[in-house]
Design goal:
The chain has helices at residues 3-13, 17-24, 33-45, 62-82, 101-117, 132-143, 160-169, 192-208, 220-232, 250-258, 274-283, 287-295, and strands at 49-54, 86-90, 122-124, 149-154, 173-177, 212-216, 240-245, 263-269. It has 305 residues and is α/β, with parallel strands linked by helices. Strand 7, helix 10 (250-258) and strand 8 (263-269) form a beta-alpha-beta unit. Helix 4 runs parallel beside helix 5 (101-117), helix 7 runs parallel beside helix 8 and helix 8 (192-208) packs parallel to helix 9. 39% of the residues are buried. The structure holds dihydroflavine-adenine dinucleotide. Dihydroflavine-adenine dinucleotide binds next to strand 4, strand 7 and helix 11. Dihydroflavine-adenine dinucleotide is lined by residues 125-126, 152, 154, 177-181, 216-219, 243-245, 248-249, 266, 280, 283-285.
């Protein structure tokens, strides 16, 4: 990250929530489920599917983990009630992975069963590399009980090719992304092009084995390479979808839709939006311009504290 960019992120990180919201709101649907459902409805009307993410990670107590599970349960019910095209994305540490892995498994088991009953689907997000092994273990346990669950792999992790090969054997539903956490060179590629190449290698392994793959990127080069790969390997169109984040590159999203691709947008919402938005700021190459624009725009009232 360039020095100026890092400095801007540091300034934003030090801001009180009310001020930070000005810059964060493009990435987050709101703080309440109703606001997120409204965004999902709009996306669906444009022909875009969604995945709802309730913001939160690293909970501090079992009751917080259970509350996270209950909130996701409500989201599944609301999706069903409103007939929306959306599944849910869950960070295992939000449901207690680091606190009590067995509790996390139990909460996720209930959610996956409920999703299965409702004809829906639970995606396990992949967090930092200290969570990888346990998240994959939970995935393997749950998918053996009900097929309404999938997982994510990060192309920057050196272990991911081996993980992809193992997931491919079981015909898993996998999201492939580059990876967002800061990881040491011992475990993760640091070079941008190497990460891209590994991303494509993961797609080859998974798509080649007939897995359903969520291609999660806003990188135009990767999107084109992925589409070429699908065409070259004659992968049926219904075996993959492109996935993007709310507030990022809606122009690319529109282009993919016009080309007849399936597109899903990750719709985060909830009170705990700070850590998520700071990660988005770090990745935004036009952050400075975005900050300047937000400073001169009239503020919409921020919901919540
Ligand atoms: P890259 O960062 O190179 O961005 C490509 C282009 O997209 C940029 O040049 C810019 O134009 C635009 N862009 C990217 N980020 C932007 C931003 N914040 N603001 C404005 N423009 C931006 N990670 C993870 O570790 N575990 C996970 O489970 C997930 N899940 C996930 C789901 C979905 C649907 C997506 C799209 C992404 C994730 N990620 C993730 C995040 C992912 O690992 C990665 O960090 C981001 O997608 C950014 O990488 P890109 O491939 O988009 O390329």
């Amino acid at each position: 990250m360039a020095i100026v960019h890092r400095a801007v992120v540091d300034v934003l990180a030090a801001m009180p929530a009310r001020l930070l919201w000005r810059f964060a709101r493009r990435y987050v649907a709101g703080t309440a489920l109703d606001e997120a459902l409204r965004v999902v409805r709009d996306l669906n009307a444009q022909g875009v599917m969604a995945t709802l993410d309730i913001l939160g990670e690293q909970v501090g107590s079992p009751s917080e983990a259970r509350a996270g599970g209950a909130a996701y349960g409500e989201a599944l019910q609301a999706i069903r009630r409103e007939g929306l095209l959306s599944n849910i994305s869950v960070k295992p540490t939000h449901l207690g992975l680091k606190l009590a892995p067995d509790l996390c498994l139990a909460i996720l088991r209930d959610l996956v069963r409920e999703a299965h009953r409702l004809g829906n689907f639970v995606r396990l997000d992949m967090e930092d590399s200290t969570c990888t092994e346990e998240t994959l273990r939970i995935y393997r346990t749950l998918v053996g009980e009900a097929p309404a669950v999938g997982v994510a792999l990060q192309a920057y992790l050196k272990r991911s090719r081996a993980d992809a090969a193992r997931l491919a054997e079981g015909g898993a539903n996998v999201r492939v992304c580059k990876g967002i956490y800061r990881e040491a060179p011992a475990v993760a590629f640091q070079d941008r092009q190497m990460i891209r190449e590994n991303f494509l290698a993961l797609l080859e392994i998974l798509l080649g084995a007939g897995c359903y793959v969520g291609i999660a990127t806003h990188d135009p080069w990767l999107i084109q390479e992925a589409r070429d790969l699908v065409a070259r390997r004659q992968i049926p169109r219904d075996r993959h979808e492109f996935q993007m984040l709310l507030g990022v590159r809606s122009d690319l999203r529109a282009g993919l839709l016009t080309a007849g691709e399936r597109v899903r947008v990750y719709v985060p919402f909830g009170e705990n939006w700070r850590a998520y938005c700071l990660r988005r700021f770090r990745e935004n190459p036009t952050l400075l311009r975005h900050v300047m624009r937000a400073l001169f725009r009239r503020e919409r009232p921020r919901p919540g504290p």
